[in-house]
Specification:
alpha+beta; globular; two-stranded antiparallel ribbon; about 280 residues
């Protein structure tokens, strides 16, 4: 891990941030503005155009000191990112004053919302490095209660867990059907309805809907295990009406006419995890 370094997002590191979010990765178009309440207009259709729109918004927020995060570097190359910030920035309040993290008397609540890692550096602990640096930055800024909203991920793999073996086969079939018939075909829609729910037990919460992904890939919101390693405790399951999930639920409802979306009961659960420093 000694080869990797971290820096906070600032006017000085903005060129590195922009370079990191301009490499053709699937998350480039967001520019990490969604959790701050900004989304490119619907008439901005191309991902490259959405990226440019979102990065312009992010640049303005950085100039006004209304965006926080950690960049991870391999040498001089940015390879990872973690977004954090005071509650008032995520989503941002319209009357937020530049340079002030919290108003006088305001409860000090921080949020850690998003991780990105360059594909070449997956499975190297980059998200964990970014998270530890974010916690250090929060401590230097006075600390407080920190919340995160990760997914639970099974500890095993398809070789040892029959559930994961079935899901792996289901994913392979979905990929084959997508290539053969297209995303909005009846064949794909029928297959999506056979999605098998996956549950895991999280200490402090109990059984939750889990997510199964490639072990080398960390979901954008992180995993329960990586936050547990840093001393976070699970306290509840994030409700669908929460600010971070309401829009996603609306988008899913809008798309039901186009393809079969997983039911609310089977969607992976976001776990509310907290730590005070």
């Amino acid at each position: 891990m000694a080869r990797y370094t971290t820096k906070e997002l600032s006017r000085r590191t903005w060129p590195d941030y922009k370079r990191f979010f301009s490499q053709g990765n699937g998350w480039d178009h967001c520019g990490c503005t969604a959790y701050q309440g900004f989304h490119a207009p619907r008439d901005v259709r191309l991902w490259a155009d959405k990226r440019d729109w979102n990065l312009n918004v992010k640049c303005d927020l950085v100039e006004r000191r209304l965006a926080h995060g950690i960049l991870v570097y391999d040498g001089t190359e940015p390879i990872g990112w973690c977004q954090f910030g005071p509650k008032g920035e995520l989503p941002i309040r319209g009357n937020r004053r530049p340079g002030r993290l919290f108003d006088p008397g305001e409860e000090r609540i921080w949020k850690v919302t998003c991780f990105c890692t360059h594909p070449k550096y997956r499975d190297k602990g980059i998200a964990g490095i970014a998270l530890r640096a974010a916690l250090g930055a929060i401590r230097r800024k006075g600390g407080g209660l920190i919340e995160a909203y990760p997914f639970a991920r099974p500890k095993g793999g398809p070789e040892t867990d029959e559930r994961l073996a079935r899901i792996k086969e289901w994913n392979s079939t979905r990929t084959r059907l997508l290539k053969a018939h297209g995303r909005f075909s009846e064949e794909v829609e029928r297959h999506l309805r056979t999605r098998e729910p996956l549950t895991e037990v999280v200490d402090g919460v109990g059984p939750v809907n889990a997510i199964y992904v490639n072990a080398k890939w960390v979901p954008h919101c992180g995993t329960v295990a990586m936050f547990e390693r840093e001393g976070f405790k699970a306290v509840s399951i994030l409700g669908v009406t929460n600010e971070f999930t309401a829009r996603a639920a609306l988008v899913a409802l809008e798309k039901r006419s186009q393809r079969a979306a997983p039911s609310r009961e089977s969607r992976p659960s976001r776990i509310v995890m907290q730590k005070t420093i």
